[in-house]
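Folding problem:
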Amino acid sequence: MRRVFGYSYFSRQVLSSLLTIAALDGLAVAILCLLFDIRAFGVFYSLVVYITLLCATGALVAIGMWRRNAVAWVVLAGLLATTGASLLIPSHYAPEITAEMRDEPRLLRVLSFNVLAQNRKSGPAIADAVLELDPDVAIFLEARPLDTELDRLRKVYPYQIDCADEPRSWRCDSIMLSKYPLENAFRSNLSMRAIGRMVSAVITVDGQRLRVMSAHFSKPYHPTVQHQEVRRVLDKLDGEHLPLVLTGDFNASIFQPSTRLLLRETGLRPGPKEPATWPIRAGRWGVPIDHIFASPPLVIRETHRIENNYGSNHFGIYSDIVLAPDARSAPNNDVVAATP
């Protein structure tokens, strides 16, 4: 019995040590993601919270198997601290919503939804949902399922950047529908991997001129490409003095270096809380990879998720945007057109 018990105890020590090493590796990856821009890590940035939680679970199992495993206790403490730090990062970018902002009349509602190009049967249901939510500007990515609904939507959204002039579907990814006239409107490429995935226009709402832009970035399996696409967006905005609303499928969370670069360079900010949009099966525990950002004096009061995915592999989102109270009396900036 001693031999059997001794062998069992030794096995638990070995398994506990292996789990501890795995958890330590996860802790190292998470810390590197938080401190440095390592493009080779790619998708790990968007999953950093989930990596730390998974590794913390592994450390707990290691401790349960061998309570004297001091290293596992230290790793667990480090993982919990790293998880806490990761959860604080989005709040660093989000504006403080004051009581005055909550009472401020809504300036604009913007909707963004990657509807999935192969999702042809859901076009009518998606159009019905849009009409019910009644956004001022609606932007759709992989938008071909809505081709048959544009005439119906045009009654409410007479101003459109659509795909009517581009019959080749692979060259026209995104469309913009607006209740307000679109000025300086254009469609452009983000990269050779992202053809026709940027649309942009200037609108005027209650005397406030602002630019609305959408971008559908490449997946983070090619992080260098994603950085190049962000630089492309920044080049388009060079010389622009108007407030900006940027929406789209970033294929990355706010932890991704490319996303943080974009926020840093433009002054864009998310809403107080970003809902998870992917993967669908994860529901509220998924990753927010679809975003709506706004630059001052525009403030996103709240961002909501469209709870029905309508056959897409993403949830759609919409944001209610207000003008900061102290900006009401400020003169409006002149526009410098972004380069088509």
